[in-house]
Design a protein that fits this description.
single chain, 374 residues, alpha/beta, Rossmann fold, Dihydrodipicolinate Reductase, domain 2, 9-stranded mixed sheet, 7-stranded parallel sheet, 10 helices, 18 strands, 29% strand
């Protein structure tokens, strides 16, 4: 039976979700501030989420499930509206606000909001959540992840997988991590970690992707997220930030005032190739289960030839697969439930991993079999 989905935000990830759900024979409608002529969706609604988030939530309440793919600055208001209208929403918007603050509102209307449900955060939360449920103590949980170009070109050595403005946030947003069980904060460009993967010479830097994982009951003694880049990229980014290219101040351009960071994003977007990316991801878990040491890795890597980027398609696959499970009733939680807290977490995680394998993405598991990850 065809299910009904509403995809809110029709950028690269939203388009990837729409393509995947339509390929499975479902009815999909989309919402965006811009018109679309690609005819993939059954119907496209032109609504400005910055002005009418409640109108979109009211529309979403008529569907079996909605997928939220708005820019981070717009995502929270839409999630809040969905919590008031009894919507079932699987969301990938990287909001600065904490979605868990909306839990009481979602419980009142029996909404289900699954925030941060992409690849990282998202699948990374599922892996660490499973580990926390099955281990008595976690010494270390470290996520390394990045969408990087297959053929890096100077001077940036990077490609654009989604909104460049959201990308720049990674280089300025204070980073929360866990050390000795305590939450600490650092500058994202204060650390550069050399990283070798399948013969590739890479670097990684801390990013603020732990989010809801920071309030886990069985929180690891040490936990952080590192974002992967090609070598030399971070030196260029650090120079740009020091020169003020990421500032919030506005500049006057012929009588039009524009934020410096927004202008930088427009310039960098032209300099970054699209749809030429690959995913590199490694999650390390080290701890104790049944009085025995467990140390292992989940490694994900690969590139997909497609009209959308690899990272967009992988993010869209995680989001759409969870949305399908919600619409089919396999996931029936209520409230604001981050991926690591889903009741049927084992089942959801394995299904997502299997779908990624079907795409042709390489998944390697080393030492995590005692946790049911394979």
């Amino acid at each position: 039976m065809a299910l009904r989905f509403l995809v809110v935000g029709y950028g690269r990830v939203g388009r990837a979700i729409t393509l995947r759900l339509k390929s499975r024979g479902h009815h999909v409608e989309t919402v965006d501030v811009r018109r679309s002529n690609d005819k993939i969706a059954d119907e496209h609604h032109v609504i400005d989420a910055s002005k009418s988030p409640r109108d979109i939530a009211r529309l979403a309440s008529k569907f079996d499930c909605a997928c939220g793919c708005l820019p981070g600055g717009l995502g929270y208001k839409f999630i809040a509206a969905c919590a008031d209208y009894g919507v079932k929403l699987v969301d990938v918007s990287f909001t600065s606000e904490d979605p868990l603050t909306l839990n009481s509102r979602a419980l009142k209307t029996e909404s289900l909001i699954i925030p941060d449900c992409g690849i990282a955060p998202g699948l990374s939360n599922m892996i660490i959540g499973l580990s926390a449920r099955k281990m008595s103590f976690i010494e270390k949980a470290e996520i390394k992840v990045g969408g990087i170009p297959k053929r890096p070109r100077p001077p940036l050595y990077h490609s654009s997988s989604w909104s460049v403005e959201d990308l720049l946030e990674e280089y300025i947003r204070p980073v929360r991590y866990v050390e000795n069980h305590e939450v600490k904060v650092c500058d994202p460009l204060s650390l550069k970690v050399p990283f070798k993967f399948k013969g590739l010479e890479l670097e990684a830097f801390p990013t603020d992707g732990l989010r809801t994982l920071l309030r886990m009951k069985n929180r690891p003694k040490f936990m952080r997220e590192l974002t992967i880049r090609w070598k030399d990229h971070l030196d260029v980014i650090k120079s740009l930030r020091e020169l003020g290219f990421f500032d919030d101040d506005k500049v006057d351009l012929g009588g039009v005032k524009m934020p410096i960071r927004a202008l930088t994003a427009k310039i960098l977007e032209k300099a970054m190739p699209r749809n030429d990316d690959m995913i590199v991801m490694e999650i390390e878990i080290h701890g104790i289960k049944d009085n025995k040491e467990v140390k292992g890795y989940l490694r994900i890597h690969g590139s997909l030839a497609n009209e959308v980027s690899t990272m967009a398609k992988i993010t869209g696959t995680v989001c759409s697969e969870v949305a399908l499970m919600v619409a089919q009733g396999q996931i029936n939680d209520i409230g604001v439930v981050p991926p690591e807290d889903l009741n049927k977490l084992d089942e959801v995680t394995l299904q997502v991993l299997n779908e990624l394998k079907k795409l042709g993405i390489q998944i390697e598991v080393e030492g995590l079999e005692p946790l049911g990850i394979h």
